[in-house]
Every structure is written in structure tokens, then in C-alpha cells.
């Protein structure tokens, strides 16, 4: 069994593995609920209402209210599992409030889950991770050059990002981008964000407002 991804709220940690889902009570440190399923889950993210789970054939979700029915933990909560959307294999899920982005082996989507909301997509087979803040979508693409892509306009399909940072450009040549984290409205420029990128050579911190950056730690 291998751990694929983690998500936490103020009550539980949700761990998805090649065997399924484990939900751990943060107060007791004990297993609270679980789902065992062939192939397990590939990704996890949650908002106030739901926990979203990536599979080899799309995204499923668990309503958090379903966890209230547990009387004698740990319990199997396979009955709580619902379909969200069908797709190719899910690599990563992230969101912010009503916004949710799903990376698959074929594309990336961003959905605003409100009445008269929208879903926007871009076809790309090389996207590995994504990160959503209230006004932007960030995602990583792999290849000969690895790239941090930034999308400023979420409500329409796109072919190219609004801008990007690439290895061999702002980022050093020959490195790989492993993960991304973005802090909202923390740039030196008002209404912009700060990007933290874990790479094979260390951590880059990039001001998305003026492209200033520093290398926080460089591995030997």
C-alpha cells in the first residue's frame, strides 16, 4: 500500500492510498472511517461540504454530513461514495471555496460550483499538479522544460495560460517541479500572490506580481 495524497480540515485528516481512503480523527489520532476499493484513490481535496476523491475513471465525492452517521468507529463508509464526474485517470485535485480544479491524464478543468456556474478546460497530457486561489489557477506541466502556468481568466476554455515561469528561464535549467503552493494576496504588488515551488534542487519563492524570486533552500 502506498500513500498518494493527504487533505485535512479542523476535524479529520483524509489519506488516500493505493488501497482506498482512511479518515483519521485529529483529536484522538485514531482511524474514524475508511473505504477499501480496488486500485484505491489517486487524489483528495475537500471544501466545507464535500471530500473529492480521484480514481482511474473520474472523480467521486463524499458528503461530510455522511460522516455524522458513524456510531462506532472505525466504520466502512463505502455507502457514502457518489459520482462527481467521469474522466480519464485523475492525477490531482485542488480547489478554493466553490472552485475546484481536476487534473487528469488528458486535461485540466476548473469548475465554479454555484448556480449558473461554469466549467472551463484545457487539453494537455503533461499537467502534474494544480493550485486554486480565489482569482487564479496555477498548474505545473512537465516535459523537456518544466513550467508553472498561471491562468487569470477562469470562466472560459483556454489553450494557453495567461503567463508562465519555465525552467531555463526564471527557473534553473535541468530541474523538475515537484509541487506548488500559493498564498493569496501576499505579493509585494497589491492583489497578487506568492508562489512556492518545490523542485528537485530546492524551493523557489516567486512574487507573481513582479516576478522577483529567491531560492529558499538548495539541495546539495
Task: Describe the protein in words.
The model has no long low-confidence stretch (mean pLDDT 94). The protein has 220 residues and is an all-beta fold. The strands form five sheets. It has a five-stranded mixed sheet, with no helix packed on it. Strands 5-6-7-9 form a four-stranded antiparallel sheet, with no helix packed on it. The protein has a four-stranded antiparallel sheet with strand order 10-11-12-13, with no helix packed on it. The radius of gyration is 18 Å and the shape is globular. The protein is 0% helix and 55% strand. It has strands at residues 3-8, 12-17, 20-25, 31-36, 43-46, 50-55, 58-63, 75-76, 81-86, 90-96, 99-104, 107-112, 118-123, 127-133, 136-141, 147-151, 163-166, 177-183, 194-199, 202-207, 213-218. The protein folds into two domains: 1-86, Thrombin, subunit H (Beta Barrel), CATH 2.40.10; 96-220, Methylamine Dehydrogenase, Chain H. β10 (90-96) and β11 (99-104) form a beta hairpin.
Brief summary:
The protein has no helices and 21 strands.
Label the CATH architecture of the largest domain.
7 Propeller
What amount of the residues lies in strands?
A: over 45%
Any idea how many domains?
A: 2
* CATH topology annotation of the largest domain: Methylamine Dehydrogenase, Chain H
Based on CA inertia axes, which overall geometry fits? globular
Rg measurement, Å? 18 Å
Instruction: Provide the spatial order of strands within the biggest beta sheet.
Output: 1-2-3-4-8
The tally of strands reads 21
Mean pLDDT level: 94
| N-to-C SSE string, H for helix and E for strand | EEEEEEEEEEEEEEEEEEEEE
Report the biggest beta sheet as strand number plus sense, adding barrel if it closes: 5 strands, mixed
Report the CATH superfamily of the largest domain: YVTN repeat-like/Quinoprotein amine dehydrogenase
* DSSP helix fraction: under 10%
User: What structural category characterises the helix and strand content?
Assistant: mainly beta
State the helix count.
Answer: 0
Task: Report the span from N to C terminus.
Answer: 31 Å
Amino acid at each position: 500500500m502506498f500513500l498518494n495524497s493527504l487533505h485535512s480540515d479542523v476535524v479529520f485528516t483524509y489519506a488516500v492510498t493505493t488501497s482506498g481512503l482512511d479518515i483519521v480523527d485529529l483529536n484522538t489520532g485514531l482511524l474514524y472511517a475508511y473505504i477499501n476499493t480496488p486500485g484505491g484513490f489517486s487524489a483528495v481535496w475537500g471544501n466545507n461540504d464535500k471530500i473529492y476523491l480521484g480514481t482511474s475513471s473520474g472523480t467521486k465525492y463524499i458528503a461530510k454530513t455522511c460522516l455524522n452517521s458513524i456510531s462506532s468507529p472505525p466504520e466502512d463508509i463505502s455507502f457514502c461514495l457518489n459520482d462527481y464526474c467521469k474522466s480519464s485517470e485523475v492525477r490531482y485535485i485542488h480547489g478554493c471555496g466553490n472552485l475546484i480544479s481536476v487534473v487528469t491524464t488528458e486535461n485540466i478543468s476548473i469548475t465554479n460550483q454555484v448556480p449558473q456556474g461554469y466549467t472551463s478546460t484545457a487539453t494537455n497530457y503533461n499537467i502534474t499538479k494544480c493550485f486554486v486561489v480565489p482569482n487564479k489557477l496555477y498548474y505545473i506541466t512537465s516535459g523537456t522544460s518544466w513550467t508553472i502556468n498561471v491562468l487569470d481568466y477562469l470562466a472560459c476554455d483556454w489553450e494557453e495560460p495567461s503567463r508562465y515561469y519555465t525552467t531555463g528561464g526564471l527557473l534553473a535549467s535541468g530541474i523538475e517541479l515537484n509541487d506548488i503552493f500559493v498564498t493569496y494576496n501576499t505579493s509585494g504588488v497589491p492583489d497578487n500572490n506568492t508562489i512556492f515551488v518545490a523542485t528537485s534542487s530546492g524551493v523557489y519563492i516567486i512574487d507573481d506580481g513582479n516576478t522577483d524570486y529567491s531560492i529558499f533552500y538548495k539541495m546539495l
